[in-house]
Amino acid sequence: MLIADDLDKLLDILPDFVKNPLYNHPNKKFLIEIVMDLGRRPEARFPDGPEYLSLINISWHDLDYCIKKIPNFSGDNRSGIESTLHRISSIKNRKGNIIGLTCRVGRAIFGTASMIRDLLYSGHSILLLGKPGVGKTTAIREITRVLADEMEKRVVIIDTSNEIAGDGDIPHPAIGRARRMQVTQPELQHQVMIEAVENHMPEVIIIDEIGTELEVLAARTIAERGVQLVGTAHGNYLESIIKNPTLSDLVGGIQYVTLGDDEAKRRGSQKSILERKTVPAFQIAVEIHQRNVLVVHEKVDRFVDLILQGSILSLERRKLHVDGSVSINYETSNSTGFFYHKHLSPTLNTQFQSTSEDISNLYGSQNQDFESNLNNASSKIISNSSSFDCNTFSVLKLYVYGINVQQVETTIDALNFAITLTRDVLRADYILALRSYIKQNSKIREVAKSKHIVIYTIHNNNTNNIIRALKQIMHSPLLSYSD
Fold first, then answer.
1. Order of all β-strands in the sheet with 419-421
2. What sequence ranges are listed for the domain AAA+ ATPase (predicted)?
3. Distance from chain centroid for Cα 404
């Protein structure tokens, strides 16, 4: 993996007592940023933590020394060094005077796109997620080069803070043949996005840090015009984007839907539920957890639907090794869900020993109803009951069948029991059901038997019956119960 960072050009703008300790630092190639705050000691930040560079505190003179060596700061308080990828951000006091600088090291790392190279050839729009500093911009820069040079596509970068293609009028060589459109003011990014599509006929638009409602709307407009998007957004997981009212439209948005009585009873849910509103602007989401570890969601629409339902999720984890090889592991994880947000169970991660196709076959397509999924699940579980190695948690997971879920949830709240409701029978510790319903459904009894799930039944939705059943679940041995 080839790394180009032009670090010496960044160190040259710093005072001697700040830059000298870094010239010979053993971890210089891993440096993330340098922080200089008025009246404080300068800090260097590395992946394993910060480190003071000097006993001398930063003065007004030191800050002024740095500021005179770089271009003026833009409206988002950012500047750069021409022909490099470095970014200098300022902190100002109430009078507008700069009292702190954050000097972020910009690197072109050739080879970082190897983990998702296959996704680029799919032609689908890709959304990169991750916390600040995890490497989203570095990854999107290398993706840009691969799309422009290796795949020979017409690529246009919307470079709001000159962070992707570097400062100055000439773009950094790290982006290859891609073209760059600079944004004069951050609040105008959405206009430049639309202008790029209308004026320059791109096949791919690259956007860093989508963060406002107008930018989300522009991204949706571009996607509807058939242009491939590659963008980044702040958020550790796809769930955090769904919960973000500003960014949720990137993955289809969410809305409340009112179900009929029969449909609500069949689903075992409330009448008002959350569902995906429309087609996502991005078909693929990549969570960057570490610089060499990604989680890929190749069907964002299906994944969002499963999250809203509180179902088991299929995760594809990719890891880049030192020798350049990429390993892919398939795992399952319990969605925290939105419908049962009051009773969140710990995330359950278990290594999955089969293939992604097995997961798809086990849980069925999104259009299948409960009975069809249950048919698939019962046959699959019985023949391969050892596929999952589930950890045990102190919070009990309860599946409700044929009973008013809101009533059960309210009762659990009132009793303050450590019970969480689940929409998926396969991950339940117990099943609470109406006796008449459970007698008519042999499949659910078959799954419960094969998975050793205890079934508790009650005659009707009477609150006293529900309370008695919940108390038995909490305090009695694992025996079948009926009122």
1. 419-421, 396-401, 430-434, 454-458, 481-482
2. 122-278
3. 33
Give the pairing type, strands 43-46 and 33-37: antiparallel
Q: Which two tokens stand for residue 160?
A: 């709001």
Q: Judge whether 5 and 107 are in contact, CB under 8 Å.
A: yes
Confidence at residue 446, expressed as pLDDT on a 0 to 100 scale: 83
- Burial per residue of 402-424, b for 16 or more beta-carbon CB atoms within 10 angstroms, e otherwise: bbbbeebbebbeeeebebbbbbb
Report the alpha-carbon distance of residue 299 to residue 343 in Å, rounded. 27
- CA-nearest of 336, 365, 361 to 349 is 336
Structure tokens at 98: 């700069």
The CA-based diameter of the chain, rounded to the nearest angstrom, is 82
pLDDT over threshold 80, residue 336: no
Best CA proximity match to 29, nearest among 4, 50, 53, 12: 4
- The amino acid at 370: F
Q: Which residues pair with 334 in a beta bridge?
A: 312
In this predicted model, what pLDDT tens digit does every residue of 25-53 receive, in sequence order?
Answer: 999 988 999 999 999 999 999 988 999 99
Q: How far is 308 from 321, CA to CA, in rounded Å?
A: 34
What is the CB neighbour count within 10 angstroms for residue 186? 17
Rounded Cα gap, residues 464 and 454, in angstroms: 20
* Contact predicate 310/424, CB 8 Å: yes
Structural domains for the chain: 2-106 (3.30.450.90), 110-298 (3.40.50.300), 383-482 (3.40.50)
